[in-house]
Amino acid sequence: MKKFTMLLTAVLAGAALTAGAQNTDTPEGYKFTDTKTVQTVPITNQYRSGTCWCFSTISFLEEEILRAGGPQVKLSEMWVVRNIYFEKAVKYVRLHGSLNFAVGGAAHDVTHAIEEYGIVPQEVYKGLNYGTELPEFGEIDEVLKAYVDAIIKNKNGKLTPAWQDGLNAILDAYFGPRPETFTYEGKEYSPKTFAESLPIKMSDYIEFSSYTHHPFYETFVIEVPDNWLWGEVYNVPLDEMMQVVDAAIAEGHPVAWGTDVSEKGFVGGKAIGVIPEVAEKNMVGSDAEKWGKLSNAEKEARIYSLNEPVKERTITQEMRQEAFDNYETTDDHGMVIVGTAVDQNGSPFYKVQNSWGERPPYDGFYYFSRPFVEYKTMDIMVNKNVVPKEILKKIGLK
After folding, report:
1. Is the pTM of this model over 0.85?
2. Rounded to an integer, what distance in angstroms lies between the CA atom of residue 309 and that of residue 293?
3. What is the pLDDT of residues 330-342, one digit of tens each?
């Protein structure tokens, strides 16, 4: 027994040493160090609703309020969604159904809604009249689409004056009636006066994009289905669009970010987005001889596992345009860029606030590489006061 015990101890010790040796060879994954962050509000959760455009832009504006020296205030996303759904329905009917009638939208929908209807705190208008604690739009979306389609197809030969009342009744049933006045922190407001009380102005927020099918330094209507409002963005070269992002973060301002997260390089479970170089050129952290023995499928699987930092593509204006033209870059998701970071190799990343709730590994924040942002940015919204003066001059603003 004593000999067996000694033998077992030796075997276990050897196994531990072997395991330790193996662990030193195991890729450590990405390690991020934040280099600059803006003041942020708590992570939100859009849950089962396609309202990332609203959740992200509301967080962006709440952070702009903090940046302007205002208090932390939770604004109502559903107030915006409810009002935008009404406008979108009216436009859909006016266009005989030739419009994308869905819950998706853009950052400018939020600033437009606040200018048009004001805004209220979330505690005043939660917009969850259907019995859940978080947004669930499966039924709402179907009911609203069926209603507006029925209005268009009606056999009366013309619309009745009741159809918009019917639409409002549906919206009120799901989201709740809109208050004309309310009391917040001891003061009485209307939605308009509450918006006016905030230390930010919606007119200060402008959008940028970067595509070559329109002239640079002019505005254009970005051609994506969710741009139902036909909102315009300023078109600038790629390097200048990135200058705007960097200038905003450097000044402590967030950036509302419309992007595409359908890329294989976006791994949601690891909260990382990258644009890897092709397998033949990607040997970061790998022995060239061993790498060469892997099949193409094995190389790709290893790269996209993101178990170790990967070499990334150099992004060009032409690559952006080709991806947009071929539907490889689409208007998938809205988030907020709230900082910069580097990985353990010193490669630049952006820290991004998402609206999928607090989840690991970064408590609801994500890291996207600079090449990812260069390649997959659909549009950005920023406070025009942080845009470099030479760029403002080129687009005709002061």
Report:
1. yes
2. 20
3. 999 999 999 999 9
